[in-house]
Write a structure and sequence with these properties.
Chain B: It is found in: Cell membrane. The complex is a heterodimer of chains A (about 375) and B (about 170). Chain A is mainly alpha-helical and about 375 residues long. Chain A has 14 helices and two strands, in the order H-H-H-E-E-H-H-H-H-H-H-H-H-H-H-H. Chain A has one domain. The N and C termini of chain A lie far apart (about 80 Å). Chain B has five helices and five strands. The chains are: A mainly alpha (about 375), B alpha+beta (about 170).
């Protein structure tokens, strides 16, 4: 009973820490988004609130809370409130299965640095991410506004389209690991056997799909200002709008963590054995947790970098890329991975498959695509 | 007729394979933004940092004094005539005995007012002035005002102070 109690307390405090880290990262993502945008446009960015503007998220939060909380007269009031709550809830739930570190021993209690180690970890992520679009859909529909509805419809169809390619790219990983558990996937990648080496094609597909799932540029059509005013959050104001925006940043961080888990070895980092021998297992585990969060933050930077580089797709281009581009490539990747598992030569077959794929595209282009007459 | 020989005829045909794949262009674009990420910002933090606007920028008006500290203005009114915005008005007064130290000429401006809401900072008053009395200084601007009472600048704000004289590049 005593042991159960202490495990429970340890788990609860760990979940609290993850919760705080996620919220803190999301809050400061808004600041760094503006800073990175500014640097990429040769500007300075926010620098008035505190030194280098680091109190800017606080100021933004105060602004958000102080604004009028407006609910349109003809909206469905309960669903209107439920939309952002659902977005926030699902965004925070995904992190439960991400293994943030190896086991850690405090006193006489040993526990995993992971919310829950379920044997269907990846399916959990998929399920919650699919639910995430409900927040947008409900919010857009309840606004009783045609632009919000159009944004919500776009979000829904976009997420469904890109989940297929995302799932197919993960199937290749499951074939290699043989388990749906995120912990097992990370443990299979220890000591530098990161999946990015075995699955370069799968990673690119997963990355593109993650952009689409997070509704980030170049796939931010649900909140496309030029056509839809503000998209699904046109009618939202005050902290309800803040929740939608916040959920987007949380999703970015969590999808970065998921990508690090699936493709970049999770909490693995070069020199684990050395640190374990020199400073003990606890230090090694904590550095591993830092490594995972660092990898996730690197992905957040890539998300922002892409946002301030690319314009957004047209909607038919988005659908074309998803259905006739990514899904066939992902299927090809599954076949190549299967071949690699069968021959037990995964890296060789993986890169061979990539070369065959590029060569096939070039040959197809030479043979069948009409050339401009010189 | 060609104005320059730099005309470049662009033909848009079918996109090549690399162009249709987007990825090379995306990588190129990301390299460009990364280059800018590490380059120096061009921002000037305005109230704290100020850009040098050049030696002949037309800013705040100033009524110059000569080396002995006597006002140069003789209230001839040419500046007011030249002013396209009719921003300048003045009242002339004859110089009394004993005031030679204060006023250089025998007639001087008792009241000299510029309405800063009307002024368009064209500098025609400076060009019209035969006594080299009024200038638009290059190093200082008319500050923002909050009330209409503040916009009419009298001699108290316009006449040069001897302890902080205005010098322009090229003047002795």
């Amino acid at each position: 009973m005593n042991l159960l109690d202490s495990v429970f307390i340890a788990k609860a405090s760990f979940i609290g820490v993850i919760f705080l880290i996620t919220l803190g990262v999301a809050a400061y993502s808004t600041y760094f988004e503006r800073k990175i945008a500014a640097f990429m446009q040769d500007r300075i960015g926010p620098d008035r609130a505190g030194p280098f503007g680091i109190l800017q998220p606080l100021a933004d939060a105060v602004k958000m809370f102080m604004k009028e909380d407006f609910i349109p007269a003809n909206s469905n009031k309960w669903l209107f409130i439920m939309g952002p709550c659902l977005s926030m809830l699902t965004a925070l739930m995904t992190s439960a299965v991400v293994p943030f570190g190896d086991t850690i021993t405090l006193g006489d209690v040993t526990f995993d640095l992971q919310g829950i180690d379920v044997n269907i970890g990846i399916l959990w992520v998929f399920g919650i991410v699919s639910l995430g679009v409900y927040g947008i859909l409900i919010g857009g529909w309840a606004s009783n506004n045609k632009y919000s509805l159009l944004g919500a419809i776009r979000a829904a169809s976009q997420n469904i389209s890109y989940e297929l390619a995302m799932g197919l790219s993960i199937i290749a990983i499951l074939m290699m690991t043989g388990s749906l558990s995120t912990k097992a996937i990370v443990e299979a990648q220890q000591n530098g056997h990161w999946n990015i080496l075995y699955q370069p094609m799968g990673f690119v597909i997963f990355l593109i799909c993650a952009f689409a799932e997070c509704n980030r540029t170049p796939f931010d059509l649900p909140e496309c200002e030029t056509e839809l005013i503000g998209g699904y959050h046109t009618e939202y104001s005050s902290m309800k709008l803040g929740f939608f925006l916040f959920a987007e940043y949380i999703n970015m961080f969590i999808s970065g963590a998921v990508m690090a888990t699936l493709y970049f070895g999770g909490y693995d980092y070069p020199g684990v054995d050395f640190v374990t021998a020199q400073f003990g297992a606890t230090a090694a585990t904590l550095i591993g947790m830092g490594a995972l969060i660092g990898k996730a933050l690197a992905f957040v930077f890539i998300f922002m970098w892409v946002r301030w580089t690319l314009p957004r797709f047209r909607y038919d281009q988005l659908m074309g890329l998803g259905w006739s581009g990514l899904i066939p490539i992902a299927m090809f990747n599954v076949v190549v991975t299967g071949l690699g598992v069968l021959l037990n030569q995964q890296i060789l077959v993986g890169f061979g498959g990539l070369i065959v794929f590029i060569a096939g595209i070039v040959v197809y282009d030479q043979l069948f695509v009409k050339k401009k007459l010189a | 007729m060609k104005l320059s020989n730099r005309t470049k005829v662009v033909e848009q045909g079918e996109m090549t394979l690399a162009e249709r794949m987007y990825l090379p262009a995306i990588v190129g674009g990301m390299a460009t933004t990364l280059k800018h990420f590490f380059s120096k910002p061009v921002t000037i933090r305005y109230p704290e940092q100020q850009r040098y606007l050049g030696p002949i920028y037309r800013g705040h008006h100033i009524l110059k004094k000569d080396e002995q500290g006597a006002e140069r203005c003789t209230a001839c009114g040419l500046c007011a005539v030249a002013c396209p915005a009719e921003a300048i008005s003045m009242v002339a007064e004859e110089r009394k005995k004993g005031e030679e130290k204060l006023y250089r000429e025998e007639k001087y401006a008792k009241v000299y007012e510029i309405n800063m809401l009307r002024c368009i900072f064209c500098g025609l008053c400076e060009e019209a002035c035969p006594k080299e009395a009024i200038f638009l200084r290059h190093d200082q601007m008319v500050p923002v005002f909050n009330s209409r009472d503040e916009v009419i600048y009298g001699k108290d704000k316009l006449v040069e102070k001897m302890d902080q004289r205005y010098l322009r590049e090229g003047w002795k």
